[in-house]
Write a structure and sequence with these properties.
The complex is a heterodimer.
Chain A: H1 3-6, H2 8-12, E1 16-21, H3 26-30, H4 36-45, E2 51-55, H5 56-59, H6 68-81, E3 84-89, H7 104-120, E4 125-128, H8 134-147, E5 150-155, H9 164-176, E6 184-185, H10 196-204, H11 209-220, H12 225-238, H13 243-255, E7 274-278, H14 292-301, E8 306-312, H15 322-339
Parallel strand pairs in A: 1-2, 1-8, 2-3, 3-4, 4-5, 5-6, 7-8
Chain B: H1 6-9, E1 10-17, E2 21-27, E3 34-35, E4 39-46, E5 49-50, E6 56-60, E7 63-66, E8 77-78, E9 83-89, E10 98-107, E11 117-126
The chains are: A alpha/beta, B mainly beta.
């Protein structure tokens, strides 16, 4: 079945539409409090759609293999809950063995079944990752055009619209000129700071305060992120830091990074989907690290048409309810959209 | 230092003992399914004593293999909702006795070259039969 027939709602109405990714409910899911089907039911019950994104390797056993039974059930559930498949997040797993990078041929073969899975389930858009070089996606163009499904890597912290891997993709896109190639911005790559609740959590888990302050100081610097990570790793090593501490702090550099929200305008026509990343909200309902007050108007001004999946990633450190956080994010976005 | 998966990785009923072996059920401390080739049991300690890797077998999807062979298994998935079982040749632990179990799992997420996600879990667990 072609993807185009499966998502009439997403094609019919232009503009920025809201939805969520089930990734927001990672805590509820992996602690086995909600099954995949129960999550869908709850998303619908709490009106957190209509766009519905999933991570293939999270929600589907045996992914990228899709059984007939799963495909049929998935369509039934979308109908039942009045949800619209918005985006399937696939993984560009270039290092199936640590230290051994897949070749382009191997990577193309690794992506193909994931793309077919997305089409089979009726997703109009696929999220890939920059781990795969641009050449991998270029080789997949005939397949995505045949399936009429859009694909794009996620521009996630620490990347910006002008990071070298992003520029390599932009160059390839200009040459190939396929309307099925695009980008998926993650709003966490235009952040203003690290959530206070995250720092409080690290401290409560025994994070040495000097190392944490060192990492935050480096995070704020205007250097490229690879330099920041290396600088931090060297300093942590010199202090004989525990590997679990280093691993926890290294995450800080890749969850959020600074960028001017207006930078997205540069690639706006190629934006096919958005990750509405969020961690925490203040008493007035604003996200504490990511300036949605600036971002939402930029996407509207740029004429973006498609879904923004609310993606609460606070489960990295918090046991808060994903449902509550997604609701807060969507309340904020609705309020901002209604002002425009 | 703990991360948000530390208390979850070792479930309360996860320690069982048979004659000459014990088993420890562990949960994947990550948000998605991973190929076994990206998973390393970096350390297992029972009551403070290191268990060498050659005394451990790793079971997933009904297949039980020596731990050290798992590094090659790029096609064997650890589905994010499934428990894996560590089979340890070792002391005969008494039913209902309590033991301190320390597990460190290193994950190498395959789309994040060079990054290692380290999760350490330490729990006193009662032997179930």
């Amino acid at each position: 079945m072609s993807a185009s027939t499966a998502t009439p709602a997403s094609r019919a109405k232009p503009g920025l539409k809201l939805g969520t990714t089930l990734f927001s409910f990672t805590t509820e899911y992996i602690q086995r409090r909600y099954s995949f089907e129960q999550l869908l039911a709850e998303v619908a019950a709490q009106n957190l759609g209509p766009g519905l994104e999933i991570v293939g390797f999270q929600s589907i056993r045996g992914f990228p293999t899709i059984t007939d039974a799963f495909a049929e059930r998935f369509r039934e559930l979308m109908d039942l809950h009045k949800l619209t498949p918005s985006c399937l997040s696939i993984n560009s797993d270039m290092m199936l063995r640590p230290g051994h990078m897949q070749s382009v041929d191997e990577a193309v073969a690794y992506h193909e079944p994931q793309i077919r899975a997305a089409a089979r389930l009726g997703f109009p858009v696929i999220r890939s990752q920059f781990a795969a070089p641009a050449e991998v996606l270029r080789r997949l163009v005939p397949l995505i055009e045949k399936l009429q499904i859009k694909i794009g890597p996620e521009i996630h912290a620490p990347m910006t619209v002008n990071s070298p891997p992003v520029l390599a993709y932009r160059e390839m896109y200009a040459k190939v000129g396929s309307p099925y190639l695009g980008f998926i911005p993650d709003c966490g790559s235009a952040a203003r700071n690290i959530p206070k609740t995250y720092l409080a959590y690290l401290k409560s888990q025994g994070m040495p305060e000097d190392l944490m302050n060192l990492a935050v100081g480096i995070w704020r610097q205007a250097k490229n992120v690879q330099q920041k990570i290396e600088e931090f790793a060297a300093l942590a090593k010199a202090r004989n830091a525990d590997p679990t501490v280093v691993s926890s702090l290294a995450v800080m550099f890749s969850i959020l990074s600074p960028q001017d929200p207006r930078a997205w305008l540069e690639i706006m026509p190629q934006i096919i989907h958005i990750h509405g990343k969020c961690y925490d909200f203040d008493a007035s309902g604003s996200e504490t690290s990511i300036p949605y007050e600036e971002l939402i108007p930029v996407f509207v001004e740029g004429g973006f048409s498609g879904f923004m999946s609310t993606e609460w990633e606070g489960h990295l450190y918090s046991q808060a309810s994903g449902f509550e956080m997604v609701r807060k994010h969507q309340t904020l976005c609705r309020r901002l959209l209604s002002r425009i | 230092m703990d991360n948000n998966f530390s208390t979850y990785m070792l479930a309360d009923q996860s320690l069982r003992a048979g004659a000459g072996t014990l088993t420890i059920a562990i949960r994947l401390p990550w948000y998605r399914t991973l190929p076994l080739s990206t998973v390393r049991v970096a350390q297992l300690r029972i009551d403070g004593e290191d268990v060498p890797g050659d005394r451990i077998e790793f079971e997933i999807n009904g297949h039980r293999r020596p731990l050290l062979q798992c590094e090659d298994l790029i096609d064997e998935q650890w589905f994010v909702l499934d428990d894996a079982t560590l089979h340890v040749r070792g002391p005969d632990l008494k039913n209902q006795s309590e033991h301190l179990i320390d597990v460190t799992l290193n994950l190498h997420p395959p789309y994040m070259p060079g990054f290692t996600w380290v999760t350490h879990s330490s729990k006193r667990l009662q032997v179930q039969r």
